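4.2 Preliminary Data

To establish feasibility before requesting continued support, the project team ran the inverse folding procedure on a target of 596 residues. The structure was first converted into the token representation described in Section 3, and no sequence information of any kind was made available to the design step. The complete token record follows.
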């Protein structure tokens, strides 16, 4: 179904993205797992179904060769009819109309499109309207000729007419989809290409690829608008803490609050922000920082710190313009503390990567390194970003620099193991794979309190289909971080991969939403499951929730694509009077590849 394809082709961006926002690497890996889960069963076709599919595919080919006009092909019929005319037999209006069509098809094949249109005009005029299938074909064929001439409004009109006569005419939907594509009416295009997919039972790769492109395009358009209108949301405590823990030498996190006895006055400005941070009152941080930044008092000694903290929170909330302004303010101040400047560079780098400005992001890392060549965070943050850009080898180099500088940085160490795992898989080196599994075990032994060690180990095991072992590690991780929604989502995904257990997965996903009602990934994953179960309305609601908590443009593109795919399926199934669960059941019985 549409959603599954979507996952296959879009999810990777998503998992890459999750990493940048500072979400634990783990979240990203979860979506990687979804991709596996949905694409794996694709190969399984029953013999019977395969034969049927092959036949369908074969038919598809012939249709394409016939230049996408419909009709009894050869001239034999025309000849026959002419002969009977010569014999003085009466031509029925239907036969006459079909003769015009055949003439039209001949013109079409010979590239005489204007003449073809005139013959189709006559066919339409002659044909008794109760011959609905024929009428549909004449209109569809005329639309084909208009299409070559790029007369898009004529194409749309004729396809619409064809569909009035034959509402299940896949080819007419497909052609009208292309006309909508040409005129950039992407939502209409999406509805039509979705109708084509459903009528073709998701068997035609070309249609599916077209649908995928259209989905991304509608997602992109909606996300651009969505970015401008979205309301920033302060993420959950778990999210913020996980992000913060990925920095081992963050100067902001080591600033001590004055001891209580020193003063009874409530804290102000940056120190208040710091206190709010410690107390996990994240909503109050930005205003407290602003108080410091706008203060004219001489004692406002933490202005740069306040800018860095406010910029960081704007980044976490997805307010990029505000975030960049704060980092820019630090970076244009040459007198600011070099360490704070280095962190401003690192965080602005992440921001640039989120906005898909890779060069600028990598340049900022160079600057950070120039300022603080011995800071482990520079290398670790850059390693994470390289990994999500799929530059696994360079990422590994950076991870090992970080680990060398900060041997007790558990997260960097276990992420290094993960990158090493990815590379070993990529090059197919079994020895290296065994070594990395051993390295994982050692990391866990050294850092038994690090959630990431268990969760990454679990994901790697799940990736190798060692589900019972993976589950054990998830359970250990859950003991350390019972309120981490990402961990719960991962387990849900694993239950789908492992046992195809939708009930348990849904239960877990609802549990993830309960512990973190702002968990975009949980809503999105649950929405995807509901699409698989043909609960399209429920899915749309969940995707709308996910949109509230999506942070970056890329995330919005992805969720809007999922959302629009579900809406289009609702539109189309209503229009066609098809029950989507019947199509869905076929997908899940393995009778058809899960292309879409
Ligand atoms: C359709 O695409 C899938 C995956 O890309 C491929 O395995 C399959 O052979 C394709 N089928 C046809 C008929 O092109
Ligand atoms: C689905 O139908 C609604 C209401 O008619 C329409 O606004 C929308 O554009 C259609 N398609 C999609 C993909 O949203």
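Position-by-position output of the design step:
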């Amino acid at each position: 179904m549409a959603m599954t394809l979507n996952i296959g082709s879009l999810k990777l961006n998503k998992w890459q993205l999750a990493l940048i926002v500072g979400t634990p690497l783990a979240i990203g890996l979860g979506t990687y797992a979804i991709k596996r889960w949905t694409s794996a069963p694709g190969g399984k076709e029953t013999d019977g179904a395969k034969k049927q599919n092959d036949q369908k595919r074969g038919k598809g080919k012939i249709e394409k060769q016939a230049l996408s006009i419909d009709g009894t092909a050869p001239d034999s019929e025309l000849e026959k009819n002419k002969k009977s005319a010569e014999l003085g037999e009466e031509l029925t209006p239907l036969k006459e109309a079909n003769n015009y069509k055949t003439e039209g098809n001949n013109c079409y094949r010979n590239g005489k499109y204007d003449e073809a249109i005139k013959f189709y005009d006559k066919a339409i005029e002659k044909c008794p309207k109760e011959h609905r299938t024929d009428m549909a074909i004449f209109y569809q064929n005329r639309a084909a000729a208009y299409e070559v001439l790029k007369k898009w409004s004529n194409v749309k009109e004729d396809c619409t007419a064809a569909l009035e006569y034959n509402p299940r005419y896949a080819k007419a939907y497909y052609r009208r989809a292309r006309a909508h594509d040409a005129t950039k009416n992407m939502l209409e295009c999406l509805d039509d290409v979705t109708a084509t997919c459903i009528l073709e039972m998701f068997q035609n790769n070309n249609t599916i690829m077209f649908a995928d492109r259209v989905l991304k395009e509608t997602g992109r358009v909606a996300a651009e608008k969505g970015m401008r209108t979205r309301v920033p949301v302060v993420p959950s405590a778990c999210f913020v803490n996980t992000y913060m823990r990925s920095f081992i030498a963050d100067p902001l996190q080591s600033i001590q609050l004055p001891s209580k006895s020193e003063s009874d006055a409530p804290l102000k400005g940056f120190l208040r922000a710091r206190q709010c941070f410690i107390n996990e009152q994240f909503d109050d941080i930005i205003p407290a920082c602003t108080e410091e930044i706008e203060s004219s008092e001489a004692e406002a000694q933490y202005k740069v710190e306040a800018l860095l903290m406010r910029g960081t929170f704007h980044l976490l909330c997805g307010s990029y313009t505000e975030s960049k302004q704060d980092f820019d303010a630090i970076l244009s101040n040459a007198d600011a503390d070099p360490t704070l400047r280095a962190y401003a560079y690192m965080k602005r780098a992440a921001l640039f990567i989120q906005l898909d400005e890779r060069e600028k992001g990598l340049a900022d890392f160079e600057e950070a390194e120039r300022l603080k060549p011995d800071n482990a965070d520079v290398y670790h943050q850059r390693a994470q970003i390289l990994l999500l850009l799929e530059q696994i080898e360079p990422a590994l180099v950076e991870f090992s620099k970080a680990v060398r500088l900060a041997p007790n940085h558990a997260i960097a160490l276990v992420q290094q193991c993960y990158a090493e795992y990815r590379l070993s898989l990529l090059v197919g080196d079994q020895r290296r794979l065994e070594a990395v599994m051993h390295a994982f075990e050692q990391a866990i032994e050294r850092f038994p309190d690090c959630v990431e060690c268990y969760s990454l180990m679990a994901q790697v095991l799940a990736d190798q289909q060692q589900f019972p072992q993976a589950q054990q590690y998830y359970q250990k991780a859950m003991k350390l971080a019972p309120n981490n929604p990402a961990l719960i989502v991962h387990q849900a995904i694993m239950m789908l991969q492992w046992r195809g257990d939708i009930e348990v997965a849904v239960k877990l996903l609802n549990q993830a939403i309960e512990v973190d009602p702002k968990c975009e990934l949980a809503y999105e994953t649950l929405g995807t499951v509901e699409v698989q179960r043909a609960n399209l309305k429920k899915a749309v609601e969940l995707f709308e929730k996910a949109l509230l908590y999506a942070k970056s443009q890329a995330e919005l593109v992805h969720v809007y694509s999922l959302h629009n795919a579900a809406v289009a399926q609702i539109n189309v199934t209503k229009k066609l009077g098809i029950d989507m669960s019947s199509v869905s059941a076929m997908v899940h019985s393995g009778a058809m590849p899960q292309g879409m």
